[in-house]
Amino acid sequence: MKLSALRAALAATASVAAVGATLLTASPAGAATTLGASAAQSGRYFGAAVAAAKLSDSTYVSILDREFSMVTPENEMKMDATEPSQGQFNYTNADRIVNHALGAGMRMRGHTLAWYQQQPGWMQSMEGSALRQALINHITQVAGHYSGKIYAWDVVNEAFADGGSGGRRDSNLQRTGNDWIEVAFRTARAADPVAKLCYNDYNIEDWSAAKTQGVYRMVQDFKSRGVPIDCVGFQSHFGSGGPPSSFQTTLTNFAALGVDVQLTELDIAQASSSAYAATTRACVNVPRCTGITTWGIRDTDSWRSGENPLLFDGNGNKKAAYNGVLDALNAAPGTPTTTPTTPTTPTTTPTTTTSAPPPGTCSASVSLNAWNGGFVATVRVTAGSADLNAWTVTLTLPSGAAVTNSWNVQRSGDRWSNVSYNGHVAAGQYTEFGFQATGSGTPAVAGCG
Ligand code: G3I
C-alpha cells in the first residue's frame, strides 16, 4: 500500500486514531527501506557527492554502499584536479571514486568539465583563443578518459550571473565568446557519445527568478538549434525553509523543453524533514526528474557542516529528514503499490526479450538503446507471486558483445545478481539494472531466480 493510501485509510477510521501515530512512522509492509531502492521503484536514482579521501572511512563507505545508487565526485573531476599542469592529466583520485562506485553497482555523475572556479593556475591567467583551445582539449581528454563510465556529465557549471540580469556571469571562459557553452557541449558529445550532458547551476529553482529564466532561454535555444543538451542540474542548496514554492513548476517547465531534470547537490540548512520531503516530492511529481543527489553523506562531510544540512548525522545515524525523503520516494507516482498483486507481465518492445515467469520466483526482460557499435541494456527483474530477497538473472550476450560497465548489479560471467540495496523486490513488483556494451544484438534472458 502506498503511504498516501495508508494515511487515507487511517483518516477514515476513527477507531485507529490512537495507534495512527505509530503506524504513520512505520514503513508500509514491503516498501523499500533504502534511498537507492526507494528511488529505483519509480525508475530514479538517489546519489551522494563523494570525496576520495573518505573512501578509507568504513562508516562512510558502509552508508554509501547501503543507501546510494549514484555518485558524484565532490572535487576530484574538477579542472584543477584533472589537469593540474597544462596537457598533463591526473585521474588518480577520480578513478578511485569511479572504481568504487562502478564496482559496487552504482552509477556516476561527472562533475564538472568547465567552471569559472577551481581552474588550475595555468588556466586562470588564460584568455581568448588560447583558453578556448585549452578548454576544448580539456573536455576532449577528460570526457574521453571516462567515456562509457559516466551516466551524466555536468558539462558546464554555474555560468549564469546572480541577481536580476538573467545573463551570463563574467569569467575568462565567457570572455572567449558567448558560444563557449555550446562549444563545450558539442565537444563533450564528440568525446563521450553516451553520457547525458547537463547544464548545472544554483539559485535556478525559483521559476520567477531572472537567473532561472536566463538558463531556461539558453536551454530552449540549444534545443531549437540542435546543440546537444540532455539535462539540467538544479543544485538545490536550500535555506532552512526548503525549496521555493514554484520548484515543481520550474522542473516541469524545463522538462517540457525536452531535457531531463535532476537535483544535483541537495542540502538544506538544519535539514527539516518537511523541507526534505517537499523537495523530494517536487522531483518525484515530475516524470522527467530522474534523480536526486545530496551534496555529501553525513553532516560532518558537508561544505556547510555548521548548518547540519544532510540526511545522516556525524555518527552516521539516519536523521528525521531521512525518513521524510524515504516516505516521499515510496509514495512517488509510478511507484508500484506494495500490497501483493497478481504478477504483471513486463511490457515488451521489439527489442525486448522476456523469460517465462516461474511461479514464486522472477521474470526478466531486456530493453535496448542501441547505436552503431554499442548499446545500453536495461534489465527489469519482476518478482513472481512471492517477495524476492535476492535474485540472479542469467543472460546470454550477443556474439562478440563486450560489457564495459554496469550499474545496480554485480556480475559473475553470465550471472547478474542484486547488490545490497535492490535484492528485496515485493511480489509482483520490479527493480531494474543496466549495463553498457560494445557490439550489436540483443541479450537473451536464459533464467531468473
Ligand atoms: O584538499 C585541500 C587541502 O589539501 C588543503 O589543505 C585545503 C586548504 O584550503 O584545501 C583543500 O581543498 C579544498 C577542497 O574543497 C577539499 O576540501 C579547497 O580549498 C576548497 O576550495 C574545496 O571546496 C569545494 C568547493 O566546491 C570549491 O571547489 C567543496 O569541497 C565542494 O563541496 C564545493 O562544491 C561545489 C560544487 O562543486 C558546485 N556547486 C557548489 C558546491 C558548493 O560550493
SSE topology sketch:
Elements: H1 3-11, H2 17-25, H3 35-40, E1 45-50, H4 58-67, E2 70-73, H5 79-82, H6 92-103, E3 107-115, H7 121-124, H8 128-145, E4 152-157, H9 180-191, E5 196-201, H10 210-225, E6 231-234, E7 237-238, H11 247-255, E8 260-268, H12 273-284, E9 289-294, H13 320-330, E10 353-354, E11 362-371, E12 374-383, E13 392-396, E14 402-407, E15 410-412, E16 415-417, E17 430-438, E18 444-448
Parallel strand pairs: 1-2, 1-9, 2-3, 3-4, 4-5, 5-6, 6-8, 7-8, 8-9
Antiparallel strand pairs: 10-11, 11-12, 12-17, 13-16, 13-18, 14-17, 15-16
Bound molecules: ligand G3I.
Short description:
By secondary structure, the protein is of the alpha/beta class.
Terminal Cα span: 25 Å
**Strand portion:** 15-25%
**Strand element count:** 18
Number of domains: 2
Which structural class should the secondary elements be placed in?
A: alpha/beta
- The first-level CATH class name of the largest domain: Alpha Beta
Give the strand line-up of the largest sheet: 1-2-3-4-5-6-8-9
Second-tier CATH architecture of the largest domain? Alpha-Beta Barrel
Signal peptide: 1-31
Keywords: Carbohydrate metabolism, Glycosidase, Hydrolase, Polysaccharide degradation, Signal, Xylan degradation
Domain GH10: 29-328
Domain CBM2: 355-449
